[in-house]
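Figure S4 source data
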Amino acid sequence: MSELKYYVRHQQNYLRDKLLLICKDEATKDFFERRIPGSRFERLTRDQAEHVSRIGMHGKIVTFGYTYKLTEEEMNQINTLDFDHTASIIAEGNARLYKEAIEKGLE
């Protein structure tokens, strides 16, 4: 498996102005960047992403983003105590979302 990529999405116009995006490749991140105008994606290391997922950022909770393409079984496996497993699940869900968007011509 390729190395996962970690980002914090900053978007001042959303209630949750920060969220953690985990993906397998730059193309997936680029897709989200194009589809969410006004967003800025800050690259993180794996350790920084784990810290943000557990502790937050600037006093705010930072949630895992874009989990709605995960199965119920996968959702039940999300656990910040096993960050690497959770990150791989989130990245897989984001890959599915990106693939579906390409198939629908939304790219």
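Figure S5 source data
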Amino acid sequence: MERSQERDGGEGVAGREPGGGGLRLRREIGLWSAVSLIAGCMIGSGIFMSPQWVLVYIGSPGASLVVWAVCGLLAMMGALCYAELGALVPKSGGEYAYILQIFGSLPAFLVIYTFVLLVRPAAIAAVSLSFAEYAVAPFYPGCSSMPQAVLKGVAATCILLLMLVNCWSLRLATMLTNVCTVAKVFSLLVIMGGGAVVLGQGHGYTEAFLFAFHNTTQQARRIGMAFYQGLWSFDGWNNVNYVVEELKNPKQNLVWALMIAIPLVTSLHLLVNLSYLLVLSPSEILSSDAMAVSWGNQVLGAWAWLVPLAVTLSTFGSVNGTFFGGSRVCYVAAREGHMPQLLSMVHVHRLTPTPALIFTTAVALVLVLPGNFSTIVNFLSFLGWITYGTTIGCLLYLRIKKKNLPRPYKVPTIIPVIMLLASLYLVLAPIIDHPQIEFLYIFLFLLSGIPVYFLLVYFQCQPKWLQMPTLYLQLLLEFAPTVKNVD
């Protein structure tokens, strides 16, 4: 985990540092590709699977729509905070880069420790399993449960295929993201249009809106869990911050990409949920294993097969976007000395972070295990909001300690304050109201990073025998170290 030399250079897209010969990642992500990356990650399995669980936890249709609207607002406020941080710290890596710059090495290591070993691979595994479930469903008609070996095999194939795409070419990966994003937005427009037609024909379940807030829960834990499920569908709003060094004109395009993508996705999510509630009764929603499929069966008739296809494309694109951003964080952490040096290298010809992609793939494959979707989301969201809250704390710290720091973009102070309070609520409410042993396990896993940090990073107690395999792999697979691509 040796530290690489930090060398600043121009923005160039050639892949080599001007006058220095060092490799760097290419800036090939334009504004619309950035919008597609954000929207493509946000529109994944969540909008097809989470609405049921939001209604389960919150208790009423009206309150569920409020939860979705507030989730979109929180995502927008979080993105605005991240836009300011991205302009102040123009490096790839997202939360890791900001916490490292502002709070120092140990907190940043704890973030990357949980992110690389648990959060991002588990997200890839969860969404790829959702992809497998919908991709395999047409081959097992009438089966309430499909063979787990088949599901895991398809999920693993999805992960391996997307690893190859991302290793081969950044341009190919962004093109795939763009195509999948167009397909998934179109599918959501179909669901919205179907709901409008049902309402126009007078067949909608409008009775549910006469008592829209009846049975709304007042338990802090259940409200927090409802937000976990809703926010899972907005997860990915920060993905463009992971790839700032590959973004064209980042100081301008970062803000614009966030301002375009998140309101678009929020509007789509709200209208799609409204369509679900108009077509399906609350009891049908609560009893359905796949709410989008139930909607398709009632509205599309013989064309209902389009819904599983749309979900398959949506989840496939979401896995690709999650893969794309997650591997960059691993790459940046290795470049800073917090991960093995090999992971900071790129392919000398393709200029993609191939070692980091392979490592992310390996961990994700280990985590492709059968599990309860809502449980995975709840515990990943718990850990994620610890990280988000810490990152927002970075912004408030800079507001207090470095008031005169030049800021290309600045949000009103009230926005990060609200985000910090929301993060604290989402972390503490489920623990205080209904403690679960799994939350303790997650916290202990986070704390286990402290001795690992002091052993491997601070005291540099690294086995010497790793140097030869690293050199051998570097020569065999044509990997080389890089320099930072910051303005």
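The mean pLDDT is 82. The first strand starts at residue 346 and ends at 347.
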